[in-house]
Amino acid sequence: MSVEDFRSEAHKLVDWIAEYYKNVADYPVKSQVNPGDIAARLPDAPPDDKEPFSSVFEDIEKIILPGMSHWQSPKFFAYFPANASFPSLLGEILTAAFGAQCMKWETSPAATELEEVVMDWLRQMTGLPENFHGVIQDSGSTSTLCAILTAREKASRFVVNKAGFYGQPIYRIYCSAEAHSSVDKAVRIAGLGHDNLVKIPVDDAYSIDTRILKKRIEDDKQMGYRPLCIVVALGTTGSTAVDPLDEIACISKEYDTWLHIDAAYAGSALLLHEYRWMIKGIEAADSFVFNPHKWLFTNFDCSAYFVRDKDALIKTFQLVPEYLKSQVHGHANDYSDWGIQLGRRFRALKLWFVIRMFGVKGLQEKLRYHISLAVEFEKWLLQAGDYEIMAPRLFNLLCFRYNPSGDLSEDELDLLNENLLKEMNNTGKVYITHTRLKGKYCLRLVIAQTNTTMEHVEQAWQLLIDKSVQIINSGKINPR
Q1: CA dihedral 369, 375, 377, 379 (to 10 degrees)
Q2: Same-domain status, 76 and 187
Q3: Distance of alpha carbon 333 from its chain centroid, rounded?
Q4: Which of 54, 78, 397, 413 sits in a 20 to 30 Å window from 100, CA-based?
Q5: What CATH number is given to the structural domain containing 250?
Q6: Residues 18 and 120 in one domain
Q7: pTM score, two decimals?
Q8: Structural domain for 178, as ranges
Q9: Per-residue pLDDT tens over the stretch 163-213
């Protein structure tokens, strides 16, 4: 493809993208295809001869598009969002065009120094301490793994990296029973053994019970285990419950553990001063992560990881073979030493675009708007009388279930709500997901997509009402 051909096709593609965003609310939010449908329409072998872009893009529209769930639809209320925005998209396009390998200062000085500045901006925007140092990782899962690996190395005086676990104590890691599964995966990958992840029961608000946490740590010490790390959840995945950081910080200090804070989704709310209560006690934390690619309108992937002892982080991961040595080594940040990956994308660019083109006030306004929409939806649920709120609403996530008569068994309620979820998603008009809280099946609706408005929320509410009535009138409870 020549430069002029690229110019022509790229202009067409940008026009298509603009139309896609203009009309994305009209697509079925959740893809309506069945497993295997897309693969069946693709050739079994690659083409021998080159094909024009027009032919490739024809298949995008005919084959790929029907198999996409539209995460950028304003009617996407599922999971946590992977939000994009036009400023971020512009930054992502430019990142792809540069095609830079940003592993070291030497390989891309602007990428390194922009990341330093942008991460400090984020630190200021979220109220984190001045002695926190930031780096962009690809995901919250990677960030949590970095935290646990660094905790392991610091506790073992960096012996495990060198000699393995021989002669080491049995390390224990503690988290809420509602903590994200990335903690489980990190413990496995770090070689600590899944049996040594201690999940602590939660209270009625689904926050970790600190009394039980302290007792379990004390019991472990009596058994000869070494408490290594406590993971604090600021916004659990199931219900966005917030663990009491200040209480846990005291326990962590008493037992000399690494204190990691997983605020992957809800950390964006720290831009709002009214949510800074969540980080009371943050001064005692060793590491902190939140994902701008969830609720700060920055294209996936972009995970903001902060650490207090950057030297321990670097010592855990740094490897400098001869072919990567440079004259500036030790005089500038080489972010490949700050995590698992050697190769790194220029992720700071899109985040820089977002912060500059929204402005801090614009980001705050968007976050507050999403929260206000959730407040309204919660009012509608309470006024309707046929729905139970299953967890406190702290941000913009609602966990609820349909319970029209009050005399259904728990199994019947589970099946009723499972059927309701299926019927709503099958319309293609919305996409919501579920969770279980204390074993009970709950519908889970998060109002956080970049371009969601009150109109879209009202449509979701009306669909919920219509499908609830339809299901109960049909007498169908079992969805199978």
Answers
A1: -150
A2: no
A3: 26
A4: 54
A5: 3.40.640.10
A6: no
A7: 0.92
A8: 100-345
A9: 999 889 999 999 999 999 999 999 999 999 999 999 999 999 999 999 999
